[in-house]
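Journal club side-thread
Mid-discussion, someone asked how the predicted structure for our own chain would compare to the paper's figures. Pasting it here so we can look after the session.
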Amino acid sequence: MNRKDLFESMAGIDDAILERSERRRPVRRPWMGAVAAVLALIIVTTAALSSLRMSGQVTQSNESANTTASDSAEPSGEHTPATMPEPAVVTLAQPDYPDMADFPQWTDYVDAAGNFDMERYDADEALWRADVDAQRQAEGYADGLQDFFAAAMAEFLAGAEGENRAISPLNVYFSLGMMAELAEDGARQEILDLLGLSDLEALRTQAKAVWNGQYRDDGATVMRLASSVWLDEGAALPDTILAALADTYYASAYRGQMGAENYTEAFRDWLSRETGGRLQEEIETVTLEPETVLALATTIQYQAKWAVEFPPSQTAAATFHAPDGDVTCQMMHGTYFGNVSWGEGYLAAAKPLENDGGTMWLILPDEGVEISDLLTGGALGLLWGEGSESKEMTIHLSMPKFDLTASTDLIEGLRSLGVTQVFAGQTPITKMPHAVRVTADEEGVAAAAYTVMEYESTEPVGEELAFVLDRPFLFVVTSPDGLPLFAGTVQRP
């Protein structure tokens, strides 16, 4: 977007947007070690603010602070230098998240005598089901995104050369959507072309449906997305843009002094809250520099329990054939009935998550086939039922426990995908580091990530399959609607 739009007066912001109240419910975790994935994506667009301020294009705001530094200390008899109050951090808008009834847990309906209250359970289950159904979208709402998701996973996961890698395709999609709201016409069109959409209104319609189609926060399964806008003091976005970000991406909005310690702390607090505190060490490195014009942040929190857990008693030391040599890992073993798919160069098993919480796809290349060959050769089509065959069978799964940390910068990858103009011009995005951590154990998976942008297998025989992940493999966690939330490669557990 141009500087004139960026620094238009804030006075015209729609009152309905400014007055939206936030319902922040703590994430309920009645189980431990279940699948948990968190991703935070931070977009920071920078520009030379000194020249902008001198040009007179910045309008100053007189809005009072929601939070300020504490008052100066009382005199102690010795001379104490005056302490200036910290600049205000102003909350401009907060999202109103969809309400959702708790998933009814069977144990909550059994009294001390062991009697089960079926009537109360059925009533609560009906309320929960109604809220879940309210989030469902019309069939085909995400049509056309398959090409983008496949291209993004191929771009950012291929060519690892023995490295573990991970990314959240869905979060990259939402970040691109928010970037499109701020972009000039040419830069916006590059984003729309990558996403396979005709115009900004089509993107808004699709992104809102995708957001609501994935949202779940019912105490048993969490798929929670959040977004925010962080403006420098005196800077403003047109009310139409803030309204679109709030309506489409449920974005909150804040204003403060870039470079001020309390503004950076407020930013970090938001990130910590929206990532469930799982990325504290990484978040402590995030700063809002004085040169920053604005920052956009998006996050995903995901939790779902395995439908069938791995019995801890069956976990044992085993050999994993890593690219740089064999290593010993703790291998989990479990049996369940599920989907097995196969195509040219791979065999895949779908491990379902409880409470319609999605699926973790485990994709094992054939001997002699590289993961990169699968990523660039169309194997990801199995996620949406293309280019593969499948059958239901009993799966004896052996899967290594792993704690995977991976990082990459997204700018060059997005440039390769055709998005270039947002990284140039007067207010460019100058950095996009993307870090992900994924941990898998007997009860489930825990994952966290953030990004900073400164502005031919043969058919299985019989009805049982021993599926052993003892060499590098690819995993994809999909939502109930089949959208890829997280994807990664395990080269060395």
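Post-session note: The chain is about 25% helix and 30% strand.
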